[in-house]
């Protein structure tokens, strides 16, 4: 029995016309970086919890979010800056308070990411679960 990995070919086999076509259709690295930033932003459990809290509670100040997620205000503020840099969260100042909310993009990405959670808790339906879901 072979112990070689099953995830690579045993010989070089390149369908050059097909590979070139696929390569030509890929977005540039500059176009991919913001998508990777958004994916990384949701890659931390605290940031994901902060985004979920904003998705549920709407616009809130950082103090409320910190209490909701059970973390320090300083830590939550750090994570909110990361989410804001990835265009997932927006902020606005109201007097001495800084209020945070999900952007439309953040809400959409969060909905796609948490779809398995909502499918578990929702009764089965006859509609297509992927209807209306697009790429951002």
From TrEMBL:
Keyword entries, A-Z: DNA-binding, Transcription, Transcription regulation
The family database entries (SMART domains) matched by this protein are listed as:
HTH_ARSR
Q: Which CDD domains match?
A: HTH_ARSR
Asked whether the UniProt record includes Plastid among its keywords, one would answer: no
PROSITE patterns referenced in this protein's UniProt entry, alphabetically: HTH_ARSR_1 (PS00846), HTH_ARSR_2 (PS50987)
What InterPro entries does the entry give? ArsR-like_HTH (IPR011991), ArsR_HTH (IPR018334), HTH_ArsR_DNA-bd_dom (IPR001845), Metal_resp_trans_reg (IPR051011), WH-like_DNA-bd_sf (IPR036388), WH_DNA-bd_sf (IPR036390)
List the GO molecular function terms.
DNA binding; DNA-binding transcription factor activity
NCBIfam families referenced in this protein's UniProt entry, alphabetically: HTH_metalloreg (NF033788)
Q: What is this protein called?
A: Transcriptional regulator
Its source organism is: Rhodococcoides kyotonense
Classification of source organism = Bacteria, Bacillati, Actinomycetota, Actinomycetes, Mycobacteriales
